């Protein structure tokens, strides 16, 4: 029988340390290293994968960390998008409990999983525990932990412990999205282009792509591919999703947003390409600075702002007083003041000048108007819509 996860003083100290890390975030490479080290003291594992997530596309972004996967990241991500399997991150994102194990999902028969048959067994892994780090209804990161086939499966108590830690850890990932944008390294402006073959192997890239890759945070523990170029997790996941879209397994657009080493927001796009002959498909990946419309939704989500709060701070930025805002929105001045207080608290400012500087100067104001217009359509809205 597996001992209770918190049965020892060492385990209890490790849990306290994880909560301390989560409170003091934001998530970064050092955070993931210490998080993995401390969690291993409570819930032992042999290999792991950790990553931040784009909350709208659920694609992995930086920071990211890989432990003992023996260069199998590409194969692992291909199965995440191309194969229907147990405990996919996109399914776990909306599950009641944000943590699940392969052993219990398959009723103790992991061979029912394609991921297990085609990859885990080859690596000597048996059970896999997956967790999504969810806060405010959005997924800000996820992780996979593996045990060897000679080790016992993860217990229900271990699963519950990780589930209890998931929300605090998510807060650290969420705060990482609010790092102050820096202009350092902004000289690379032209898009970077990378071309991958039908097997996901890098064939060619331009000089700008090489310079953008140098600005992306590395995946800790990641290994260079056959081309000798180290590709961070966001590029790998975008390529895998683009392949799945080309195969008709997934829909939508392969796109992930992330911050560079300097804090600048970038976007990674993946585009399936067709060749003149069957079987000559390729995938193009473009890395470029993110537009305001790409970043604003993440910032609003990270600050947990409602559509009404975004509408009010846009009017504050125009210089409107509370009475003028109330008149335009068909609200009472008292209600507007309550909204403003809520925004101050969420953003961590104490006056209107600080608010405008924080939201608009640092995080691109342009797209706030568009998101508000989509939510309400008109300036004067019935109180029934609040």
What would you note in describing this structure?
By secondary structure, the chain is α+β, with helices and mostly antiparallel strands. The protein folds into three domains: 9-176, Beta-Lactamase (2-Layer Sandwich); 192-294, Beta-Lactamase (2-Layer Sandwich), CATH 3.30.450.20; 304-385, Arc Repressor Mutant, subunit A. 44% of the residues lie in helices and 19% in strands. Helix 1 runs antiparallel to helix 2 (29-42). The chain is globular and about 65 Å long. The termini are far apart.
Question: Summarize this, please?
Answer:
The protein is of the alpha+beta class and about 375 residues long. It is built from 15 helices and eleven strands.
Lateral strand order in the biggest sheet: 3-4-5-1-2-8
Number of domains: 3
Q: Which range does the strand content fall in?
A: 15-25%
Radius of gyration: 22 Å
Termini separation comes to: 52 Å
Overall pLDDT level = 83
Short key terms for the protein model shown above:
Beta-Lactamase, disordered C terminus, 3 domains, Arc Repressor Mutant, subunit A, globular, 15 helices, 386 residues, 11 strands, alpha+beta
Write the layout of secondary structure elements.
Elements: H1 9-24, H2 29-42, E1 47-53, E2 60-67, H3 73-82, H4 89-92, E3 99-101, H5 102-105, H6 114-123, E4 125-135, E5 138-148, H7 156-176, E6 192-196, E7 202-205, H8 207-215, E8 219-220, H9 233-246, E9 254-259, E10 265-273, E11 282-289, H10 292-302, H11 307-317, H12 322-329, H13 333-347, H14 352-363, H15 366-376
Parallel strand pairs: 2-8
Antiparallel strand pairs: 1-2, 1-5, 3-4, 4-5, 6-7, 6-11, 9-10, 10-11
Helix pairs in contact: 1-2, 1-7, 3-9, 10-15, 11-13, 11-15, 12-13
């Amino acid at each position: 029988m597996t001992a209770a996860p918190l049965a020892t003083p060492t385990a209890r100290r490790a849990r306290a340390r994880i909560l301390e890390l989560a409170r003091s975030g934001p998530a970064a490479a050092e955070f993931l290293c210490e998080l993995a080290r401390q969690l291993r003291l409570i819930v032992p594992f042999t290999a792991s994968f950790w990553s931040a997530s784009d909350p709208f596309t659920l694609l992995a972004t930086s920071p990211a960390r890989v432990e003992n996967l023996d260069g199998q990241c590409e194969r692992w991500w291909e199965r995440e998008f191309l194969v229907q399997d147990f405990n996919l991150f996109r399914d776990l994102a909306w599950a009641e409990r944000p943590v699940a194990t392969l052993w219990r999902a398959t009723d103790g028969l992991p061979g029912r999983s394609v991921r297990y048959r085609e990859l885990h067994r080859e690596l000597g892994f048996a059970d896999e525990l997956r967790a999504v780090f969810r806060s405010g209804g959005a997924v800000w990161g996820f992780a996979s932990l593996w045990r060897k086939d000679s080790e016992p499966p993860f217990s229900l108590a271990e699963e519950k412990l990780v589930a209890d830690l998931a929300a605090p850890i998510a807060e650290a990932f969420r705060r990482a999205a609010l790092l102050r944008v820096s202009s350092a390294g902004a000289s690379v402006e032209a898009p970077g282009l990378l071309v991958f073959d039908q097997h996901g192997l890098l064939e060619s890239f331009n000089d700008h792509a090489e310079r953008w890759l140098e600005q992306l945070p590395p995946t800790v523990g990641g290994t260079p591919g056959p081309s000798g170029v180290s590709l961070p997790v966001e590029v790998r996941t975008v390529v895998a999703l683009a392949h799945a879209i080309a195969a008709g397994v997934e829909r939508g657009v392969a796109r992930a947003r992330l911050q560079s080493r300097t804090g600048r927001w970038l976007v990674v796009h993946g585009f399936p390409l067709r060749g003149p002959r069957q079987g000559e498909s390729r995938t193009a990946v473009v890395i470029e600075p993110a537009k305001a419309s790409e970043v604003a939704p993440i910032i609003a989500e990270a600050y947990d702002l409602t559509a009404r709060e975004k509408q009010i701070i846009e009017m504050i930025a125009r210089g409107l007083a509370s009475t003028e805002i109330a008149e335009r929105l068909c609200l009472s001045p008292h209600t507007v003041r309550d909204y403003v207080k809520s925004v101050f608290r969420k953003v961590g400012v104490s006056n209107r000048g600080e608010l405008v500087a924080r939201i608009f100067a640092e995080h691109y104001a342009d797209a706030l108007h568009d998101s508000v217009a989509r939510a309400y359509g008109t300036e004067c809205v019935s109180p029934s819509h609040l």
